[in-house]
Amino acid sequence: MRPKARESLLFDRFPDTERIANERTGAICHVTLTLSQLNFENKKIERDKFFEVFITSNMASIAFSRLQRECKEVVTNSEIAETGIMIEILNERLTDIKGQIRGPPDTPYEGGLFDLDIHIPENYPFTPPKIKFTTKIWHPNVSSQTGTICLDILKDQWAASLTLRTVLLSIQALMCTPEPKDPQDAVVARQYIDSHTLFKSTAEYWTVKFAKGKGPENADYKSKVDKIRDMGIREEEAIAVLSCNNWDLSKATEYIFN
Amino acid sequence: MGVVDGQSSQNVSEPGAQADASADKKEESPAAVVPDSSTDDFKDDENQLQDQQLDQIEQEQKQLPLVSDKIPFDVIVMEYDSTNGPEFRKKAEELAVVYSDVRQIRGDGNCFYRAVLVGVTELILKDHEEARRFLTVCEGWVDRLLKLGFPDWTTTDFCDYFVSWVKSIINKELKPDQVIPGLNEDHHCNYLIIFLRLISSGYLKEHTEEYEPFIDNGQSLSDYCCSEIEAMWKDVDHLGITGLVSALERPIRVEYMDRSAAPNGGWHYDFPPEQAEAPKIVLLYRPGHYDLIYRKD
């Protein structure tokens, strides 16, 4: 069996455990057992520190080293870099990762930078990573409110052999090709199907407002947003309510005050 | 245990995944809420209750080891009496004549794969020739899976993990008396189980024409394999059993407590069918669950 990342982390910090590493019989379980049986009686502080490291890295070390490789794959792959996908590791255990997808060309998201919250569950890679947009996005398969993504590979079509790279590429592909028939956000999906031009301009407006998109701000939409804001509604809410009401100012107003 | 699996797959999906437009609006602007119809609240209550029950079942299951020690088969007999299942009691008593022991497997949706894993492991611990043969079969699967288009390095990783584990049993790097207890280590065992799931799926995919007609709802074999076989904590069905048994080239017998569940309407069934001699690995099937059982010497 190959060396395990969790173990090497432990042994680096606690050189006296190396002996046990050499004696380990191969499977992770035996290491776990031996380590927990270690006699630390005379070194209480040492023991606490030891278990802190041990317990906080409770994800199986093999999963950890795989994750390291997955992250490296995203960061170093030039093809990925060209498509505008990035990740930033937020903690040592690699359970919290920030993702970023550049809006694909020829879509209403072009020029925008969309941040994602990636959480790696304890059972990874046997359960899918939990991923949602933290940048607001107007898309039939993403909740305009919570950023939750409706994508089969993040649910029942998840396979343990998929990686962060494949997942992020799939999300980017979803931005290019929405699936309005399997929506996450019914309002957006309805608009996508019924008034596609309106959908496009709304998605573009959201890209400019929330995703640092460089396109010109739609003047008509801006003036409507300002009118709603004058009623004491936050800009973000004003945009959401107007978008949900197909930019019909009176309907939006009615919605707010009913 | 279908119910437990239901819970597992719920864990997989985002809680907000079903959020509809009205739920979105509700959070959007508290001042501008359109009151929701009470049906939604009712649905929430119902879901909550179901979630609680599933949670409870899952917690109960987690109290049990993944694989129990070998215990006398009488344990199974004692589970039934004339009030809660006279039929099962009778069948259990009959089985107790033939079978002496049982290893109970945790009902987490992996029970079939885990039971076979334990059964195969015991065979290779006992029989060196068998172990060599088994190793060759397993080693062959890396290329077979890659040829089928399984993603490269992650699939190779899963295969390597399994193969090096089998090797460490053969060359005694792993002490024989620690091998089976080791299968109770969750993460370690998950890596072994995913290999079994992948090769089951692989075998079915190698024989797509033969097996695709058995899949309902017009689903493709490939989609079926992804959502039903390769997905952890998903219960096995007849196709999955066929896939695993064929992939491992090791026959198994399943004893059915419930005759209607047996493929031939009888009490037991061999995979593949019509074995010249009785398979060494025997599983006990009770609705939704598999355990491993042992013949009397």
From TrEMBL, chain A:
<dbReference type="GO" id="GO:0016740">
    <property type="term" value="F:transferase activity"/>
</dbReference>
<protein>
    <recommendedName>
        <fullName>E2 ubiquitin-conjugating enzyme</fullName>
    </recommendedName>
</protein>
<feature type="domain" description="UBC core">
    <location>
        <begin position="62"/>
        <end position="212"/>
    </location>
</feature>
<dbReference type="Pfam" id="PF00179">
    <property type="entry name" value="UQ_con"/>
</dbReference>
<keyword id="KW-0067">ATP-binding</keyword>
<feature type="active site" description="Glycyl thioester intermediate">
    <location>
        <position position="150"/>
    </location>
</feature>
<dbReference type="InterPro" id="IPR016135">
    <property type="entry name" value="UBQ-conjugating_enzyme/RWD"/>
</dbReference>
<keyword id="KW-0547">Nucleotide-binding</keyword>
<comment type="similarity">
    <text>Belongs to the ubiquitin-conjugating enzyme family.</text>
</comment>
<dbReference type="InterPro" id="IPR009060">
    <property type="entry name" value="UBA-like_sf"/>
</dbReference>
<keyword id="KW-0833">Ubl conjugation pathway</keyword>
<dbReference type="InterPro" id="IPR023313">
    <property type="entry name" value="UBQ-conjugating_AS"/>
</dbReference>
<dbReference type="InterPro" id="IPR015940">
    <property type="entry name" value="UBA"/>
</dbReference>
<dbReference type="InterPro" id="IPR000608">
    <property type="entry name" value="UBC"/>
</dbReference>
<keyword id="KW-0808">Transferase</keyword>
<feature type="domain" description="UBA">
    <location>
        <begin position="218"/>
        <end position="258"/>
    </location>
</feature>
<dbReference type="GO" id="GO:0005524">
    <property type="term" value="F:ATP binding"/>
</dbReference>
TrEMBL record, chain B:
<dbReference type="InterPro" id="IPR003323">
    <property type="entry name" value="OTU_dom"/>
</dbReference>
<feature type="site" description="Interacts with free ubiquitin">
    <location>
        <position position="290"/>
    </location>
</feature>
<feature type="site" description="Interacts with free ubiquitin">
    <location>
        <position position="258"/>
    </location>
</feature>
<dbReference type="GO" id="GO:0043130">
    <property type="term" value="F:ubiquitin binding"/>
</dbReference>
<comment type="similarity">
    <text>Belongs to the peptidase C65 family.</text>
</comment>
<protein>
    <recommendedName>
        <fullName>Ubiquitin thioesterase</fullName>
        <ecNumber>3.4.19.12</ecNumber>
    </recommendedName>
</protein>
<dbReference type="InterPro" id="IPR042468">
    <property type="entry name" value="Peptidase_C65_otubain_sub1"/>
</dbReference>
<dbReference type="GO" id="GO:0004843">
    <property type="term" value="F:cysteine-type deubiquitinase activity"/>
</dbReference>
<feature type="domain" description="OTU">
    <location>
        <begin position="100"/>
        <end position="296"/>
    </location>
</feature>
<dbReference type="GO" id="GO:0071108">
    <property type="term" value="P:protein K48-linked deubiquitination"/>
</dbReference>
<keyword id="KW-0645">Protease</keyword>
<feature type="site" description="Interacts with free ubiquitin">
    <location>
        <position position="285"/>
    </location>
</feature>
<feature type="active site">
    <location>
        <position position="289"/>
    </location>
</feature>
<dbReference type="GO" id="GO:0006508">
    <property type="term" value="P:proteolysis"/>
</dbReference>
<feature type="active site" description="Nucleophile">
    <location>
        <position position="111"/>
    </location>
</feature>
<dbReference type="InterPro" id="IPR019400">
    <property type="entry name" value="Peptidase_C65_otubain"/>
</dbReference>
<dbReference type="InterPro" id="IPR042467">
    <property type="entry name" value="Peptidase_C65_otubain_sub2"/>
</dbReference>
<feature type="site" description="Interacts with free ubiquitin">
    <location>
        <position position="256"/>
    </location>
</feature>
<dbReference type="InterPro" id="IPR038765">
    <property type="entry name" value="Papain-like_cys_pep_sf"/>
</dbReference>
<dbReference type="Pfam" id="PF10275">
    <property type="entry name" value="Peptidase_C65"/>
</dbReference>
<keyword id="KW-0833">Ubl conjugation pathway</keyword>
<dbReference type="GO" id="GO:0005634">
    <property type="term" value="C:nucleus"/>
</dbReference>
